[in-house]
TrEMBL record:
Coiled coil: none
Entries under InterPro entries matching the protein: RNaseH_sf
Transmembrane segments: none
Record's signal peptide: none
Organism: Aphanomyces euteiches
PANTHER family: CXC1-LIKE CYSTEINE CLUSTER ASSOCIATED WITH KDZ TRANSPOSASES DOMAIN-CONTAINING PROTEIN, EXPRESSED PROTEIN
One GO MF term: nucleic acid binding
Residue span of region Disordered: 11-31
Protein name per Swiss-Prot or TrEMBL: Tc1-like transposase DDE domain-containing protein
Gene3D superfamilies according to UniProt: Ribonuclease H-like superfamily/Ribonuclease H
């Protein structure tokens, strides 16, 4: 027996029933222009009932319908059907979903609940859920008004937790008064937290309130509980590679781009490092993006030979300081004269240095309107070189000699087409013609201690000085005639002329060493020069500056290399340039009057304070402090010439 559905029987009966093709008058609602083939027959078959046996029964409910309305009805029906039609298979059929649910249920039988893997909260007792807002408000009120005490049983609330409890309390009170949920939460967030975070905190307040009403405590704060990952750039070996690379670069080449290229080529060839990460990494390595300013040259500051000479220099300068007048007090007018013994003379410290002043050296930073930027002149412009001597007692030294005021300052306009360049001859002329006469007038009967830096002009030798740099290996040729030398033999000092008699031909290095019994046929020019330069008479050769000053009965000292902080005239130059930048009019014609006005602007008290600070630097290094420690100690101790021992111990 074959079973068929009711729908199949209806279609079969409709096909077998005799019918004639309906006319437009009989079926006005079937528009032949919009009907597809077979659509009319299917529509008629749908109208056939189970018990209909005659043809006229199929059209018994037919009523006249407008043809335009029927067309619109079929078009809308097709569009609605196409709207819900799937264009691809997305596994959302009932059979597929039922099959997937069966698989998931079967797999869940052999798996543990996900809450098993979560860490349980210790010391927290779940309270019975409460829905009464009045009770929640009372609990919150008790927490907020409780005294601030700290113990293991009742730890003190943090500031953030107290804000959270207060926000929930205010929110529940507002809800109790009938205020809307979102309005109340955002108003409370605006009052307690930042205004720009009111919306986000409003959502949090609603969540906290719902949680508190169910559990009687607030949800834990998860801020900062994320996994801490140490960046690769923080590894010591990577930092050491970067430091080694940056040391090989010129200071002007160090930057974000160079570090980025190095990191992407060497340590991390398969990674891309952002410029922002490279900028942060440069800060981690100790570099800062800033204007280049003059300061302590640290690279050679702690070199072994520099430290060895610094110890010798500080020992001698502090021995001489005991014979100098000291100035102290609020206005630096309190004098402390040295206690001189029989035969001792008072000593005066005098420092010297040169500096350049440019006509276009104005302020580089200023208040600028973005629409009206100033037009600055290009370059630094023409300059003036100033060489000056300072002392603690007079500052800038002036004296009236033969009715004429004489100063120790010397100026020069450097340049190929100007007055040339500053040389040792200019310095010797300044010492002999200006400095020594003024010093003798201001400090009669005193011994002056002149302090110079390690400039090549300051260490220049005289033409006939005992120096191997201008000597040839053999006699004659183009070499100067040197002064007589000496050497010791069997404890007796023997004078040695550096020229051959009677024609006066200069001896070469070979003849000089042969006379001293030091010549070896294997010696070359460089090794022979080094051997002769190590002899006592050549090693004790002094520069032109030293010879000139010592011939006048004074003392000349040279600062350790890279230690400009020992020379207080450097701070004097800084004060002058600050004044010149403030009054700069970018004109070379007014540059010299501006510099002279700046010199008058710096007071004697300021110069004495500069000197006192330099003595503190020297005292810090004498007590064994490093460069960074000395900087810290000098800033802490501002009113004395010495560093307090307590600060030295802290440093």
């Amino acid at each position: 027996m074959v079973f068929t559905s009711k729908r199949a029987l209806q279609l079969e009966r409709a096909r077998k029933a005799p019918r004639k093709k309906p006319k437009n008058d009989d079926l006005p609602f079937l528009d032949q222009d919009v009907m597809e083939p077979g659509m009319a027959e299917a529509h008629i078959a749908d109208l056939v009932e189970d018990d209909s046996s005659e043809e006229d029964e199929l059209f018994m409910d037919t009523r006249p319908v407008d043809q335009a309305d029927s067309s619109k009805w079929f078009i809308s029906y097709e569009e609605e059907t196409a709207k819900h039609r799937r264009f691809f298979y997305d596994s959302s059929t009932r059979t597929t979903m039922r099959r997937n649910k069966t698989k998931n249920d079967e797999a869940a039988k052999h798996s543990q609940d996900i809450r098993v893997f979560l860490k349980s909260t210790s010391g927290r007792v779940e309270a019975e859920p409460i829905d009464d807002i009045n009770r929640a408000i009372q609990f919150l009120h008790d927490i907020l008004v409780a005294p601030i005490t700290s113990s293991k049983q009742h730890p003190t609330l943090s500031a953030h937790d107290r804000k959270r409890y207060l926000a929930v309390h205010m929110y529940l009170c507002a809800r109790q008064n009938g205020e809307l949920t979102i309005v109340a939460s955002e108003r409370v967030a605006h009052d307690i937290f930042l205004e720009k975070l009111a919306r986000n905190y409003g959502q949090n307040i609603r969540r906290w309130a719902d949680f508190y009403c169910k559990n009687l405590f607030l949800p834990p704060v998860v801020r900062g509980h994320n996994q801490k990952i140490r960046p690769m750039l923080c590894e010591n070996d990577v930092q050491e590679q970067c430091r080694s690379f940056l040391r090989t670069l010129n200071p002007r080449q160090i930057g974000v781009g160079s570090l980025k290229r190095f990191l992407e080529n060497d340590p991390f060839p398969t990674r891309t490092i952002s410029r922002r990460s490279c900028q942060r990494f440069l800060n981690m390595l100790g570099y800062k993006y800033m204007n280049a300013k003059k300061g302590v040259y640290v690279d050679g500051h702690e070199r072994d030979d520099v430290k060895a000479y610094r110890i010798v220099f500080l020992e001698r300068i502090f021995n001489l300081e005991q014979l100098m007048t000291k100035y102290d007090g609020e206005t630096m007018t309190n004098e402390t004269k040295p206690e001189l013994k029989n035969g001792e003379k008072e000593h005066v410290l005098i420092v010297q240095d040169e500096s350049l002043f440019y006509s276009h050296d104005g302020d580089s930073s200023m208040w600028i309107h973005p629409k009206h930027p100033p037009l600055r002149k290009k370059g630094k412009g023409r300059c003036i070189m100033i060489s000056e001597f300072l002392c603690e007692c007079h500052g800038r030294m002036k004296a009236v000699l033969d009715g004429t005021e004489l100063t120790t300052m010397e100026k020069l306009t450097p340049g190929k087409n100007e007055e040339g360049w500053w040389t040792a001859d200019h310095l010797l002329h300044q010492i002999q013609q200006k400095m020594l006469p003024v010093v003798e007038a201001l400090h009669p009967g005193c011994i002056c201690v002149f302090l110079f830096d390690n400039s090549t002009n300051h260490g220049a030798f005289a033409v006939d000085a005992l120096s191997t740099s201008t000597m040839n290996l053999y006699a004659g040729g183009k070499q100067p005639k040197l002064r007589d030398g000496w050497y010791e033999k069997d404890g007796v000092r023997i004078a040695q002329p550096m020229v051959m008699t009677p024609d006066g031909t200069p001896k070469g290095i070979k003849i000089v060493l042969e006379e001293r019994g030091l010549w070896n046929s294997s010696l070359k020019l460089n090794t022979a020069k080094d051997l002769l330069a190590s002899q006592p008479d050549f090693k004790s050769q002094k520069s032109r500056v030293e010879e000139t000053i010592e011939a006048a009965g004074h003392i000349a000292l040279f600062l350790p290399k890279f230690h400009c902080e020992f020379n207080f005239i450097e701070m004097y130059w800084g004060a002058l340039k600050y004044y010149c930048r403030e009054t700069c009019d970018y004109s070379f014609a007014t540059l010299l009057p501006t510099v002279e006005a700046a010199m008058e602007h710096v007071t004697l008290a300021s110069i004495r304070r500069y000197a006192r600070k330099c003595w503190r630097y020297m005292d810090a290094y004498r007590n064994g402090l490093s460069n960074e420690q000395a900087e810290w100690a000098v800033k802490k101790q501002r009113s004395h010439r010495r560093i307090n021992m307590s600060l030295i111990n802290k440093a």
